[in-house]
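Weekly modeling sync, notes
Attendees: S.R. (lead), two postdocs, one rotation student

Agenda item 3: backlog of single-chain predictions. S.R. asked that every request posted to the team notebook include the full sequence so nobody has to chase files. The rotation student volunteered to paste the first one in as an example of the format we agreed on. Action items at the bottom.

Example entry:
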Amino acid sequence: MERSAIDRIRRCKISVIVPIYKAEKTLSKCISSILEQSLPDFELLLIDDGSPDASSNICEDWADRDERIRVFHQQNAGVSAARNKGLVEATGEYVCFVDSDDWVKTDYLKDLYEALLSDDSKSGLIVHGFVECLPDGRVISEIKLQDKILKEKQFADAFIQDDICRLGYICSKLYRKDLIDKHNIAFNTEIACCEDLLFMLEYLLYCDYIVYGKSTHYIYVRYCTSLSVRVNSFESEYVCFLQYISLAEQIKHKYGLSSEDMEAVYRSLMVCFRRTLKTDYQPGNTVLRKERLMHLRKLVDTRLEMIRFYYHPVYKIDLFGRYLLLHRMFYLYDLLMTTVFLLGIRSVFMGPKSSSMISCPIP
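Predicted structure, as returned to the notebook:
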């Protein structure tokens, strides 16, 4: 049953939000790792997003054991809706997120919280790294950042030097709750990729400082069935692309950045463009040619100059495809991509290998 925030007498330091769907095999490890934190002053919000498996019962069982846990059940609406539910119900001064198939080390919350600046009148974003591993525990990679503080006047460096868009993952970040509430920042439920990056970029429009830290206490477990490898609709990818463009332009204006300064942002933006461009051709998407051509026109016609300056694919087939797009030869481009995907050349969609957590993962 749901436990109302009204019943909580005092505000805790951190609200940890865990969206849950079909997580019965990994959920208990995730929850136990959070409950073992060296910083005890937190609440754990378990958001059951209509799981058809035993996840719901597991949540309630854990809630009966620890009063810091509150459980909320909702009809399945996706991970963004689940995170938004957590934001609405959170009573902590700060919020952070843990996915139900991942787990965290003992000092995860402690290191995030202690990285905050002492001036409580300022709102910041804390960004730490993570370890990426396989379900059997084998480490794939480690994202480890150098200790660094950027004040608001230095935020341009976050985009010019630090390429902060590559740090758009949901994990290992600490957000200030009242800033989120004041500006109605939420995850976009219309999209299924990059929603965490877009959330971070919107938050950065309003905060006063950024702290990078070298801790890597979040363990991201890569599963082949993760959301990042699912095929999404054109409209979902297109909405993501448009929101990314909007936020990029707001950032450019607020911090007085030139187009050259924004090169890293636009490069990350092109990942979303490529996803939008190719999603109709993915196995599992049965889109008629007439609709595919309509989507190509919709995507390319309004962003032709952006494609010209910032879309620089690696593979020869994609370079030829870029030529066709720039010359509005949509029928030939459609024929090319249909043939390529029928032949199973997946690398054309994937692009150069990169971490699955950075700048919107590519299936």
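Discussion: group reviewed the output briefly. DSSP finds 14 helices and twelve strands in the chain.
Action items: rotation student to repeat for the remaining queue; S.R. to check formatting next week.
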